[in-house]
From TrEMBL, chain A:
Its EC number is 6.3.5.-. Belongs to the GatB/GatE family. GatB subfamily. The gene is gatB. Residues 477-496 are annotated as: Disordered. SUPFAM superfamilies: GatB/YqeY motif, Glutamine synthetase/guanido kinase. This is Aspartyl/glutamyl-tRNA(Asn/Gln) amidotransferase subunit B. The keyword Protein biosynthesis applies. Allows the formation of correctly charged Asn-tRNA(Asn) or Gln-tRNA(Gln) through the transamidation of misacylated Asp-tRNA(Asn) or Glu-tRNA(Gln) in organisms which lack either or both of asparaginyl-tRNA or glutaminyl-tRNA synthetases. The reaction takes place in the presence of glutamine and ATP through an activated phospho-Asp-tRNA(Asn) or phospho-Glu-tRNA(Gln).
From TrEMBL, chain B:
One of its GO terms (biological process) is regulation of translational fidelity. This is Aspartyl/glutamyl-tRNA(Asn/Gln) amidotransferase subunit C. One of its GO terms (molecular function) is glutaminyl-tRNA synthase (glutamine-hydrolyzing) activity. Heterotrimer of A, B and C subunits. InterPro entries: Asp/Glu-ADT_sf_sub_c, GatC. HAMAP family: GatC (MF_00122). Its EC number is 6.3.5.-. Allows the formation of correctly charged Asn-tRNA(Asn) or Gln-tRNA(Gln) through the transamidation of misacylated Asp-tRNA(Asn) or Glu-tRNA(Gln) in organisms which lack either or both of asparaginyl-tRNA or glutaminyl-tRNA synthetases. The reaction takes place in the presence of glutamine and ATP through an activated phospho-Asp-tRNA(Asn) or phospho-Glu-tRNA(Gln). Keywords: ATP-binding, Ligase, Nucleotide-binding, Protein biosynthesis, Transferase. It catalyses: L-glutamyl-tRNA(Gln) + L-glutamine + ATP + H2O = L-glutaminyl-tRNA(Gln) + L-glutamate + ADP + phosphate + H(+); L-aspartyl-tRNA(Asn) + L-glutamine + ATP + H2O = L-asparaginyl-tRNA(Asn) + L-glutamate + ADP + phosphate + 2 H(+). Belongs to the GatC family.
Amino acid sequence: MTAQALEQRELAVVIGLEVHVQLETATKIFCSCSTEPAEDEEPNTRVCPVCLGLPGALPVLNEAAVESAVKIGKALNADIAEDTRFHRKNYYYPDLPKNFQITQYDAPICADGTLEVSVEGTRRDIGITRAHLEEDPGSLQHKGGSIDTADYTLVNYNRAGTPLVEIVTEPDFRSPQETRAFLAKLEEVLEYLGVFDATRDGSLRIDANISLVPADEVDDDGSISDEALEAANRTEVKNISSHKGAEKALAYEVTRQKNAIKRGRAVEQETRHWDESRGITVSMRSKEEEKDYRYFREADLPPLQVAHWKEEIPIPELPDARRERFHTEYGIDEESASKLTSTKEVADFFEDVAAEFDADLAATWVADNLLGELNYRDMHITDVSDRLDEFTRLVELVDADEVTTKNAEEIVLREMLDEGKDPDTIVDEEGLGKADDDEIGGFVQEAIDENPDAVEDYHNGEGGALNFLVGQVMQKSKGSADPGTVNQLLRERLDE
Amino acid sequence: MSDTPVDADEVRHVAELARVDLDEDEVEEFAAQFADILGYFDALDEVPEVDREDELVNVMRPDEVREGLTQEEALSNAAETEDGFFKGPRVS
């Protein structure tokens, strides 16, 4: 560092993330207990000798957890280690029944990957240092107060042993916004892989390391020398549980560190806890140092040699590639393509509809109408997974001109979502079947007979008169007539 | 190993990691015991070398749910319980 004081130099933000992802397997990572909480389940009912850490119980690795980790590694362009093993991380805390957590230490299953993020049109590759498998601890309740003041602690081991993958990034983020974009992107990729459920509580947990370095230490390509990183004190922020939370927590932490430096104080190297409800980070006493974890090999679990799985296990087309293909193959604009690829289920549904009907019609119906109405109701595509054929039927009705676009959007789709009825029932009940031309012809004649003044105005060249007559016909048909057809029929009749 | 005896500070540190509260005289007592225990490891140097068995690799099980313990069974060895939870002291 130069002689110039830190408080007078322009500062750049350096952030690295550790993301804990809960894997969607049926069973825990080292035993056959279910990972799926029953509704209102009782504590300590999804447990066995292994996840309770009873003496003599032997862990056996869940193949599906390893497959998920390989898929994640593949999606992040990471190497899958030829030889990977498990370690015991020792610390005494009642959420760990064995007094150690089985995790991976010096031989993680995935290493050296990247994930591209885009913030305000600028694309950057974020380096992935490693991703490893580990077990989740149980959950604690502090009774009669906060963690510091509680009278006692209640422990539930239902969650203990749930498989996690911890993804560790390089310190490549230069702003809190980038971390949010990265986490959203990561979630999207994980969801496509089918290894992760974003709607599950606590399925994504984030720790962030953050420091400020002099801006002139940052090279044009965004890289920073190890010396500059070493010289800066960093804080580790724990307890972040969403992408929005990450951006807020880190924005807070940037301001806090900048203020400390501006006042000529050093940033303390420490662990801080993100308090979501108060929107601040608070200092946490940290008891252990890295060496205190006394990592040693988990002798109960033989090593894994699964590098060849990378070739054997297929992964689906990932969101970026699919977005690009939707753009080129179907000619869909970027915004709609983004909406349509937001989850794999939406993208698959769009392609099903587009295969049967016109791609533009499918894009409008899935991206704008269906997702728009779902969003308005705070619903998600997964809430209507078993009714997608009904939406396809609605598009079919529109495509076959059996119901007008307006009625389909404003009445049928909304009633489908609000009342759970199928489209044919709604069309019948509401009498929305598109009027045939004979019927419209009748309405046209009625409108002409009933409105001689408007007819006269029309012949006198008043443009508004035709619109008035179209409106009259539309009213008579209860909206089931096509305005274009009405317009044309009226002109023909009036100009005879 | 036995010629670098464990000092009192190391004993206190290990006790803290294990969340064990030791009195001063216990610290002295454990320091002496640790030195003895480490001494026993020297005996391992005298064990003749043997070839180890071929190492197992890729031992995994299918992702199929199996019945575990009931809540009653799970809690049966616990000193204290409450409403189906294990009960313990404050943990800060």
